[in-house]
């Protein structure tokens, strides 16, 4: 009976690290409903998880608001190759 | 002794993403943005002798890029460009009907102020991203900015999914702390 109770507890109550991991996944829409449920339980009583979650969500909102962009690997490679050619030419001339 | 040194060997690695983000918000075309960045690097290479070292390399490259962006708009705003713009709306009288409604400002549309704040926010995010270790920044950009799925990144960088999430967690924690200090 005691063993079953402990199993149920570990089934529902997750560690702070696991909660933060689920919180990260949730920012990318990759946390399952069950994981989000367990995260919500932890959020109800753990202020460390709560403060991490607030900060994490704020970061996601900022990233969405700023709509930051970056180069894809192949685009960067193209620019790099062009530039390397010119750099080599310049170094040859000097 | 100048405060900052110049080393073109690292320009693409260090500044291409920052310059790209700066450019894409102003020209809204990936191809054009890439061309302008290439031109900026080449112009920087040619005028390296003018670098006094008072500003950082990044600031100096941005000042070149700003001129490139202005030149780009001057070029497309030539007489031919103007004619195309004029043809667009004013002459389409036959369409009739909704023209007045279409010209009323949309209150939910982005204002110039919004765009400016968002662009400054983007700069602040990039300033914080620059402080991350290279691998963390790469994984974070692939996952968060480019929106690649976990499997693609793992295959590309030869890491496991749990490795990826550890890197993402460290990157997000560092970024959130940095943004807390500099922006929020």
TrEMBL record, chain B:
Similarity section: Belongs to the sigma-70 factor family. ECF subfamily.
Residue ranges of domain RNA polymerase sigma-70 region in the record: 12-75
Protein name: Sigma-70 family RNA polymerase sigma factor
Entries under SUPFAM superfamilies matching the protein: Sigma2 domain of RNA polymerase sigma factors (SSF88946), Sigma3 and sigma4 domains of RNA polymerase sigma factors (SSF88659)
The keyword Transcription regulation appears for this protein: yes
Gene3D superfamilies, A to Z: 1.10.1740.10, Winged helix-like DNA-binding domain superfamily/Winged helix DNA-binding domain (1.10.10.10)
Keyword terms of this UniProt record: DNA-binding, Sigma factor, Transcription, Transcription regulation
PANTHER family, alphabetized: RNA POLYMERASE ECF-TYPE SIGMA FACTO (PTHR43133), RNA POLYMERASE SIGMA FACTOR HI_1459-RELATED (PTHR43133:SF8)
Highest classification ranks of the organism: Bacteria, Pseudomonadati, Bacteroidota, Flavobacteriia, Flavobacteriales
Residue ranges occupied by any RNA polymerase sigma factor 70 region 4 type domain in the UniProt entry: 123-175
InterPro entries referenced in this protein's UniProt entry, alphabetically: RNA_pol_sigma-70-like, RNA_pol_sigma-70_dom, RNA_pol_sigma70_r2, RNA_pol_sigma70_r4_t2, RNA_pol_sigma_r2, RNA_pol_sigma_r3/r4-like, WH-like_DNA-bd_sf
Source organism (scientific name): Winogradskyella litoriviva
Entry superkingdom: Bacteria
Keyword NADP: no
